[in-house]
Amino acid sequence: MIIYEPLWKTMKDRKVSQYRLIKYYGFSSGQLNRLKNNQYVSTHTIGVLCTILDCSVEDIMEFRMDNSELAFPNPDMYRPEEKLSDAKDA
Fold first, then answer.
1. What average pLDDT does the segment 51-79 reach?
2. Which of 27, 59, 77, 86 could pair with 55 in a Cys bridge, judged by C-beta atoms 3.0 to 4.6 Å apart?
3. What is the average pLDDT value for the chain, to the nearest integer?
């Protein structure tokens, strides 16, 4: 799951309020709401925030494994070299 907890700390450290993002930078209040609820936002939105806050992606978002990621393919399927060695052993 992607979470945006680092964003709020970065904004506080940079003294940029949500009000300032909306009024001064024209940032969408809808996007802020999505960020508050850890919902999907585009990479463009992340890039805009990085530019405004003069920070890196890690200062805005973080990945935490949770049960929702179990719906994705197993990470082992992305390691073809291990599959080849397993197939040779069989």
1. 80
2. 59
3. 86
What is the C-alpha separation between 34 and 28, in angstroms, rounded? 10
pLDDT band at 59 (very low <50, low <70, confident <90, very high): very high
- How many DSSP H helices and E strands does the chain contain? 5, 2
Non-local (6+) Cβ contacts of 5 within 8 A are 62
Q: Is the pLDDT of residue 88 over 70?
A: no
Contact 11, 35 (CB under 8 A): no
Cα–chain-centroid distance for residue 15?
Answer: 21
Look-up of token digits 């080849």: 84
- Alpha carbons 53 and 8: distance in angstroms, whole number: 11
Q: What are the tokens at 9?
A: 């700390």
